[in-house]
Amino acid sequence: MVARSSRRSLRCEARKVALLGAGGGIGQPLALLLKMNKFVTELALYDIVGVAGVAADLSHCNTPVKVTAFTGPEELAGCLSGADLVVIPAGVPRKPGMTRDDLFNTNAGIVQALVQAAGKNCPQAVLEIITNPVNSTVPIAAETLKAMGVYDPKKVIGVTSLDVVRANTFVAEARGLDMKDVDVPVIGGHAGATILPLLSQTTPAVTFTEAEKKAMTEKIQNAGTVVVEAKAGKGSATLSMAYAAARMAESTLLGLNGEPNIYECAFVQSEVVADVPYFASKVLLGPHGVAKVMGLGELDAFETAALQSMLPQLKAEIQKGVDFAKNAKVAA
Amino acid sequence: MAALNRIQKIASHLDPPKLFKFKVAVLGAAGGIGQPLSMLLKMSPYISELSLYDVANTPGVAADVSHMSTAARVKGYLGPDQLPAALAGCHLVIIPAGVPRKPGMTRDDLFNINAGIVRTLAEAVAAHCPTAWVAIISNPVNSTVPIAAEVLQRAGVLNPARLFGVTTLDVVRAEAFIAEIVGADPRDVSVPVVGGHAGITILPLLSQARPALPASMTAEQRKALMVRIQDAGTEVVQAKAGAGSATLSMAYAAARFADSCLRAMSGEGPVNEYAYVRSSAVPGLPYFSSPLRLGRGGVEEIFPLGAVDAMEQENFEAMKAELLGSIKKGEEFAARGPAAAK
Questions:
Q1: Does residue B340 have a pLDDT over 70?
Q2: Band of the pLDDT at B88, cuts 50, 70, 90?
Q3: B43 to chain A nearest CA, in Å?
Q4: Of A62, A204, A238, which is closest to B176 when you measure between CB atoms?
C-alpha cells in the first residue's frame, strides 16, 4: 500500500463501491480500508444483518468517503445502483479440516443471488469475487450474467491477490528482501494445488534449490489452511484478506480512472491455457475492467509440471460452478 | 535490473531509510478493536516488530496478519505466561483489552471488569517495559488511566509524559461531523476536543473549529452538535444493538494516535495531538485531555485551552465533578491493590 500511494490518478472520478457481506469477518476490515481509500467516493455496505452498526461506526472516520448501509434483499438494489465496483466477500468461511470446495453448497447460492442483483442493477460494474470456492464462484457469476444477457468477461474477476501477497511476504522473508520490492506472479486458481506461484519469475530475481522451490510453493498453497488451523474454528483469513482485497480494489479503481500499467494477478475468463475457460494470470486493468489477460511467460520445469498436474482439479471446480449455475437457471 | 539497482541506491541516499523502527505491542489484539488495529499497525512504516497479545485467539490473528506483505514482523502471544515476552523491548504499548458497552450502559458500567484488566496489564508494563509509551483505550478511560498511573507510580517507573488515554476518536468524530455541516473535506477540518472521554466530560471547543462553523448556526444547533459528539459512542452502541461498540473507527483513531507517537519518537517533531494525560492544565483535575506537543521523550508541552465561548465554559463547569469522580474512582481502585479484584 505504501508504494502505491505515490500513484496519483490523473482524473479524480466519483467512484461508488458496493461491498456485499460488509458485516462479516472480511467485510468489516475491508470496509475500513475502503473508507480510508482516496479513490473511493461512496461506499455502499450490504449484508443480511448487522450492517447498520458497521456503517454508523465507519461513518465517524474523518475521511471524505460517504458510507451508506443496506440491510436484506429488499435493499440490495439501492446498494448496487450506480456502483462502479462491486466487491463480494459474502458467505461462510472454512473450519479446520475443510477445503474451500466444502463451502460450495452454502456459498454457491449466496453468490448467485448477489450476482443476479448486480446484473440487474449495475450491469456496467466490475464484480470482484472473494467468496470461496473462487474457482467455482467465478464461473457461477459468469454463467448467471450470461443467462441475463449482461455478461462482460472484462468485468468478472476472482480475487487471488492474497496468494500474491502471501508469496511476496514469504519470498521476501526467505531472502531478506524489502517486501515492497518483491513481486511474485501467482497463476492458476485459488485453492490448494491450483495456486501456482511462479518463483522463477519473481522480481527481483531470486534463486531457489529444487527442494526450496517445492517447500516454498507448498507454503504458499497451504497458507490459507494454516490460518484456518491457527484460528481453531474461529474463521479463516480476514485481516490479510481485507488487505489484499483492498489492494485489488484500489488497482481496479486506478484502472477505471485511466491510470496506465496497473497489473494484478486475477482469476478471469481466459484463453491462456487450452480447455481451461477461467484461469488466473497477470491482467492489465483499464477503464472497462480487464484490458488484457497476459500470458504466462516462461515457466521452469518444476512450474510446468505443477501446472499440468493441477489442471484436472481446476477444470473440475470450474465445471462444478458452471453446472450449478446452469441447473439453477433451469429451475428458475 | 542493474539500472534499477543504481536508481534504488541513489534514491535511498536522497531519501535515507529511517534508521530506527520500533517495537509495538497491542494488548487485547484479538478483540473487536484489537484485530483491525493490528491490521493497520502492520501497515505502519515505523514498526519493526508487532507483538499481538491476548488471553485467547492470538495465534490465529497473528498467523493472519503475518501474511500481509509489509515490513513489520508479527508475533502472537497467548495468555499471562507469554505477556513478559510480548512486552520485552517495547517502545509503545497500546491497550484496547476489555469488554465493550451494550445498549443502555455507560462507559462507567464497564469499570468493574476493565479496571482489573488494566491494572494487571499495567503491572506487566512496569515489570517488563517500564520506559515504554503506554496508550490506553480500555474504557472507562477517565478512570483506567489513573489506575495505570498509580500502578506505575507504585512500581517506581511512572513517567507521566509517556502515559496516555486515547481520545483521538472524539477528535476524529468532531472533525467528521463538522465537515458534514460545512461541506468540507474532513481532513481539512480541525477542532480541539478536550476534557475526558465519556459523555459530558468530552468537551469539543467548537468556537475554535477551523474552518469556523457557519454564523447561521443557532445556539440550539451548536448545542446539538456538541451533544452529538459527546454521545457518538453511544450512537454506535445503539446501532450495533448488542453486537459491540465502535471498533473500526476506534482502530482507525488509535492507529492515527500510534502514528503520531511513533513520528514523535523518530524525532520527526513537533507532533501535535490530543490525549488524556496527567496534567496541571486545570486546577483540581489531575488528569485532563489538552492539546499537546509530543517529542522524542513523550509529552513535551501541554498547551493552554485557549479562548472558549459561553456554552463551552458552561459545559466545562458542569463536567468537572463527573471527571473528578471518575479519576478518584480509578485512583481508589488502584490504591486497594490486587486483593480487591477477587
A1: no
A2: very high
A3: 8
A4: A62
221-240 in B: which are within 8 Å (CB) of A?
232, 235-236, 239-240
DSSP-assigned letters across all residues of B70-82: SS-EEEEEESGGG
A270: containing domain: 161-317
Mean pLDDT over A140-157 rounds to 98
- Is A152 assigned a ligand-binding role in the annotation? no
The pLDDT tens digits for A208-234 are: 999 999 999 999 999 999 999 999 999
Q: Does B1 touch chain A (CB under 8 A)?
A: yes
Helical segments of chain B, H only: 2-14, 34-42, 58-66, 83-87, 111-128, 141-154, 168-182, 219-240, 248-265, 310-336
In the DSSP assignment, the letter for residue B107 is G
Cell representation of residue B191: 477542532
Q: What is the pLDDT averaged over residues B281-288?
A: 96
For chain A, how many structural domains are there in total? 2
A325 within some domain:
no
Burial of residue A113, with CB atoms counted within 10 A of its CB: 0-12 exposed, 13-18 middle, 19 or more buried: middle
Whether A5 shows a pLDDT value over 60: the answer reads no
Question: In CATH, what number is assigned to the domain containing residue A313?
Answer: 3.90.110.10
pLDDT in tens, B43-74: 999 999 999 999 999 999 999 999 999 999 99
Q: How far apart are CA B272 and CA B294, in angstroms?
A: 6
User: B65 to chain A nearest CA, in Å?
Assistant: 6
Asked if pLDDT for residue B11 goes beyond 70, the answer is no
Asked, for residue A10, whether it belongs to a domain, the answer is: no
- Listed residues A137, A159, A181: the one ending a domain: A159
Q: What percent of chain A has pLDDT over 70?
A: 95
* pLDDT at A308 exceeding the cut of 90: yes
pLDDT at position A176, please? 94
CB A91 within 8 A of CB A106: yes
Cβ contacts (< 8 Å) between B61 and chain A: which residues?
A: 231, 239
The 8-class DSSP code of residue B98 comes to S
A39 and A183 co-located in one domain: no
Please indicate if the annotation marks B212 as binding a ligand: no
**Residue A192 DSSP label:** G
Rounded to the nearest integer, the mean pLDDT of chain B is 93
Asked if residue A324 belongs to a domain, the reply is no
**Model pTM score:** 0.94
Query: Do A242 and A287 reside in the same domain of the chain?
Result: yes
Average pLDDT of A42-64?
Answer: 97
pLDDT in tens, A241-261: 999 999 999 999 999 999 999
CB B247 to CB A52 under 8 A? no
Residues A181 and A224 in one domain: yes
3-state secondary structure at position B135: strand
Same domain membership, residue A255 and residue A221: yes
H helices within chain A, ranges in order?
27-35, 51-59, 76-80, 104-121, 134-147, 161-175, 210-231, 239-256, 301-331
**Is the predicted pLDDT of residue B95 greater than 60, yes or no?**
yes
**Do residue A180 and residue A286 come from a single domain?**
yes
B67 catalytic? Reply is no
Domains and their CATH numbers in chain B: 2-167 (3.40.50.720), 168-326 (3.90.110.10)
Name which of B64, B232, B243 is nearest A53 (Cβ-Cβ): B243
A68: part of which helix (H) or strand (E)? strand A66-71
One domain for residues A48 and A97: yes
Question: A153 and A165 share a domain?
Answer: no
Q: Mark whether A25 and A137 lie in a shared domain.
A: yes
Please list every residue in chain A whose beta carbon sits closer than 8 Å to the beta carbon of residue B35.
Answer: 29, 238-239
Q: How confident is the model at residue B109 (pLDDT cuts 50, 70, 90)?
A: confident
Question: B42, B61, B67, B256: which to substitute to probe chain A, counting the most A Cβ within 10 Å?
Answer: B67
> A328: which residues sit within 8 A by CB, 6+ positions away?
A109, A112, A144
Last-in-domain residue among A95, A124, A159: A159
